[in-house]
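[#protein-structures] MJ: dropping Flagellar motor switch protein FliN/FliY here for a structure pass
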Amino acid sequence: MLGNISNVKVEISVVLGRSVIPMHQLLRMGRGAVIELDTNQDDPVLILANDKPIARGEIVIQGDKIGVSVLELLRGYN
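AK: finished. structure tokens for Flagellar motor switch protein FliN/FliY:
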């Protein structure tokens, strides 16, 4: 049975924050534009599996790589 599970692909996404902006502002944005998010740099991030929240984590930077360390599994996933 483990062989079947190992072939299942899951899309993992990490939500750093959210922002709501008017469409006209979005259309005027170009390269280098900054979108302000509703979070601080030390706030936990939300980890999604196939667009469903499964955990909270924190951003980890190792050299030129960016990763996420899992802090807490959300209810129903532990």
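MJ: nice. The domain at 10-73 is CATH 2.30.330.10 (Surface presentation of antigens (SPOA)).
AK: one more thing. The chain has one domain: 10-73.
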